[in-house]
């Protein structure tokens, strides 16, 4: 299980204030804390729509690499920014994400991923998140075909079933479909493919006291379907313990009672 810290996001006020003020120290301190908390990769988001990412995204990547050895997930809709940020990465990053609608120039994005050796998150999204498993799989199939035609192998592709919050009108139906989507992709796609999910999205709108236990339980649920990578709040103890146990159950680490306690 690849643990991807989602803490550098637009909802993090301290991070966004540091970004706006070009103050690298608090960002470096946070990045170190994420790495110490067990992050395998760190997702870097500087805006929701890509505005200004040409300047901020490569800057944060440089700060990250000065502070840690973690891998990088570049979360931007701005292809110009990605072209500047990818060379700043010490090793090929993950690009988060492509969907049926984003970015507008999807061909340019898959070409960039192909030539750079990066990995690519493929979201089951077409304007809105489909409610049926068939619709999710169809979107993923179409985007997989586009990526494969650009010579991006399956081992560098990470389909994302698009997680919605459980309190949403059809939230539970979406979540069941997400589990089934991951399970089917792991069972039928050849050569084998990776899967990824943004775990934190499941608890949006829930009371603060419920959010992290809910996310940890959902992470364990999707792990049972074969999930390979998870976008999580790595600073939360519930999440860290669940990740540790998943890795132990999968024999990815050696279990130690001292570590879990």
Q: Could you outline the blueprint of secondary structure elements for this entry?
A:
Blueprint (H helix, E strand, L loop, with lengths): L1 E7 L4 H8 L3 H13 L4 E5 L7 H15 L3 E5 L3 H7 L8 E5 L7 H11 L2 E5 L9 H17 L7 E4 L10 H18 L7 E3 L9 H16 L5 E4 L4 H13 L7 H4 L1
Parallel strand pairs: 1-2, 1-8, 2-3, 3-4, 4-5, 5-6, 7-8
Helix pairs in contact: 1-2, 2-3, 3-4, 8-9
Strand order of the largest sheet: 6-5-4-3-2-1-8-7
Instruction: Please indicate the percent range of residues in DSSP E strands (runs of 2 or more).
Output: 5-15%
The termini sit apart by 20 Å
Tally of separate domains: 2
Rg (CA only): 17 Å
What is the correct CATH architecture of the largest domain?
Alpha-Beta Barrel
- Counting copies of identical and different chains, the oligomeric state is single chain
Architecture overview:
By secondary structure, the protein is of the alpha/beta class. It folds into two domains: 1-86, no CATH class; 92-102 and 113-261, Alpha-Beta Barrel (TIM Barrel), CATH 3.20.20. It has helices at 13-20, 24-36, 53-67, 79-85, 106-116, 133-149, 171-188, 208-223, 237-249, 257-260, and strands at residues 2-8, 41-45, 71-75, 94-98, 119-123, 157-160, 196-198, 229-232. An eight-stranded parallel β-sheet has the order 6-5-4-3-2-1-8-7. α3 links the parallel β2 and β3 (71-75). It is globular, with a radius of gyration of 17 Å. The model has no long low-confidence stretch (mean pLDDT 95).
């Amino acid at each position: 299980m690849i643990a991807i810290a989602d803490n550098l996001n637009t909802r993090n006020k301290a991070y966004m204030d540091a970004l706006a003020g070009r103050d690298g120290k608090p960002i470096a301190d946070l990045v170190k804390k994420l790495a110490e908390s067990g992050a395998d990769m760190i997702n870097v988001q500087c805006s929701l729509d890509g505005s200004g990412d040409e300047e901020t995204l490569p800057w944060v990547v440089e700060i990250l690499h000065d502070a840690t050895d973690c891998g990088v997930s570049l979360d931007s809709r701005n292809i110009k920014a990605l072209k500047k940020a990818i060379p700043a990465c010490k090793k090929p990053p993950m690009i988060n994400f492509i969907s049926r609608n984003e970015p507008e120039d999807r061909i340019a994005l898959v070409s960039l991923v192909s030539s750079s050796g990066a990995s690519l998150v493929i979201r089951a999204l077409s304007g809105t998140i489909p409610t049926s498993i068939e619709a999710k799989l169809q979107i993923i199939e179409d985007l997989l075909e586009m990526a494969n035609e650009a010579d991006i192998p399956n081992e560098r592709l990470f389909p994302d079933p698009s997680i919605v919050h459980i309190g949403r009108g059809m939230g539970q139906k979406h979540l069941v479909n997400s589990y089934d989507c991951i399970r089917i992709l792991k069972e039928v796609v050849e050569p084998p493919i990776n899967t990824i999910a943004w775990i934190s999205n499941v608890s949006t709108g829930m009371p603060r006291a419920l959010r992290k236990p809910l996310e940890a339980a959902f992470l364990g649920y999707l792990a049972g379907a074969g999930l390979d990578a998870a976008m999580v709040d790595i600073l939360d103890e519930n999440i860290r313990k669940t990740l540790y146990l998943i890795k132990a159950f999968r024999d990815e680490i050696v279990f130690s009672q001292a570590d879990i306690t």
